[in-house]
Amino acid sequence: MSLSAARLSIKSIMIWLVIVVSGSAMLLSTLVTNYLQHAEVKEQLLQNVRSLADMVASNVRPIMAVTPTDLDEEMNRSDQLANMLQGLDSFPDVLNAHIYSALINGQTPQMLALYTKSTSTAAKSKINDMARYFTARLDEDNQVIEIIRPINIEEQTLGYVYVRMSSESFFSYVSGTRMVQVATIVLIIIAAFLVALKYGQMLANPIQDTNLMLQKVARSRDYSLRFSASNVREYDHMLDSINILLSRVEEYISKQQQAERELQTLNSRLEEEVNQRTIALKSANNELIQTLEKLHQFQRQIVENEKMASLGDMVAGVAHEVNTPIGLGITASTMMLDRLAVIDQQFKDKTLKASAMERFINESRENLNIIYRNLDRAAQLISSFKQVAVDQTSEEAREVNVKQLIEETLMSMRPRLKKVTHTINIDCSETLNVMCKAGPLNQILINLIMNSLIHAFETVENGKIDVIARLTDDQKLKIIYKDNGSGIPTSIKKRIFDPFVTTKRGQGGSGLGMHLVFNLVTQALNGNIKLESEEGNGVEFTLTFPVTVKKP
């Protein structure tokens, strides 16, 4: 698999590295040197202006020290000052010079004399802006330097000298310096480029040779080729490692070819054995498929037998339960027949008394009440049993009241439940009506209750069972069944819904009760069941399956 083409080569990396490093170093050095040199030249230029202004102030100090008494003396002083300033012609950089009087008693200074170079223009008066020029100012736009210095005698200011000089020499120096520095940088970069080009080629050539050699090895698959030494020590180490790798690859390929030859010989032997064992395996598979089909048939038959056994137990219990109220009804009716015969004989003999008749009427009323209650009780038992039996043998959905369905299930289990002291609580709305398959739900509740009675409450005297029914937001019926029994052992908790899993092996337990519950929930009701249990802390089964809601 080839890699994507790289954008840079060793030669280009070397060239750019040398150019960038040398160029950056030279540029930084040039900037620092240029800044320091220019600062020094600028300071020297400013110092020259200050010295020249101080010299002019010193020269005119004797003239300024004499205060004129009349107009002629004042005109004479102005001529002397003007002549003094004309001496600035010997300084080629001086453009203008002014002499101002001092600020006396708040009076505005006056210009006493001025000088303007013949090749320059006159400078404006600085009387209103003198304080700005007490420090030398470099005007880069006009390329001039301006300064005002005081004329002092014994700490008394007699006036001020303004000097304006050209700074073209400074800017010419700066421009020339920059040209020289730029040319130097360009020459250094060119030299660095040539050096980097030469040494980059020296570094790249061995790698190119190595690459060509490796391509040749890859095309020809001749791993006996070896690399020769180079002029660079690091490349020699790399080439030695590649030579070692090639020798090991050559050795590995030789061993692989030998192994392939042995494998071909072994494969030819194995093909015959595989053909023989394939025939035997097909025969065994056919027998296994037949055995599995028989096993599934037996399993379905066992499940059906389990359901019928449960129904048979319920039939026997209900029959026994129905006999009690019928027996009481027969006893009460027999007593009434005996008392009726006595009353009839007394009536015929005309010995019937009112008290006897009243007693007979009271006894008859009590016996008829007894007969009615017991016959009604028997009718309820038979009706509940009939509905449960129909539900268990029918897979059709019908409209049911969930609480009534649970109570009918408990009624059908009354012969078994009245023998124990456990309590069963139902938490369900009396108006919860749904369309669902009542038979599977009835069978699920019976199996869960029987599982609690047989296993969970084996060592519990007063157990408690809670059956909670709710309608979820997504129109599904959620039934929570929980007890406070012994819980499910950890060893079988993950396998509780598998067939033939029981803790009563050899004691009459088939291990199909919870398997039947799982199949009824997931297949008959198209729902799911979840188990939560800790050994010693009871169990909680959560059943959720879709229903059609019927509003009350």
UniProtKB/TrEMBL annotation:
<keyword id="KW-0597">Phosphoprotein</keyword>
<dbReference type="GO" id="GO:0016301">
    <property type="term" value="F:kinase activity"/>
</dbReference>
<dbReference type="InterPro" id="IPR003661">
    <property type="entry name" value="HisK_dim/P_dom"/>
</dbReference>
<dbReference type="InterPro" id="IPR036890">
    <property type="entry name" value="HATPase_C_sf"/>
</dbReference>
<dbReference type="InterPro" id="IPR005467">
    <property type="entry name" value="His_kinase_dom"/>
</dbReference>
<dbReference type="Pfam" id="PF02518">
    <property type="entry name" value="HATPase_c"/>
</dbReference>
<dbReference type="InterPro" id="IPR004358">
    <property type="entry name" value="Sig_transdc_His_kin-like_C"/>
</dbReference>
<feature type="domain" description="HAMP">
    <location>
        <begin position="201"/>
        <end position="254"/>
    </location>
</feature>
<feature type="transmembrane region" description="Helical">
    <location>
        <begin position="179"/>
        <end position="197"/>
    </location>
</feature>
<keyword id="KW-0418">Kinase</keyword>
<dbReference type="InterPro" id="IPR036097">
    <property type="entry name" value="HisK_dim/P_sf"/>
</dbReference>
<keyword id="KW-0472">Membrane</keyword>
<feature type="transmembrane region" description="Helical">
    <location>
        <begin position="12"/>
        <end position="36"/>
    </location>
</feature>
<dbReference type="InterPro" id="IPR003594">
    <property type="entry name" value="HATPase_dom"/>
</dbReference>
<keyword id="KW-0175">Coiled coil</keyword>
<keyword id="KW-0812">Transmembrane</keyword>
<dbReference type="InterPro" id="IPR003660">
    <property type="entry name" value="HAMP_dom"/>
</dbReference>
<feature type="domain" description="Histidine kinase">
    <location>
        <begin position="317"/>
        <end position="549"/>
    </location>
</feature>
<feature type="coiled-coil region">
    <location>
        <begin position="242"/>
        <end position="301"/>
    </location>
</feature>
<keyword id="KW-1133">Transmembrane helix</keyword>
<protein>
    <recommendedName>
        <fullName>histidine kinase</fullName>
        <ecNumber>2.7.13.3</ecNumber>
    </recommendedName>
</protein>
<keyword id="KW-0808">Transferase</keyword>
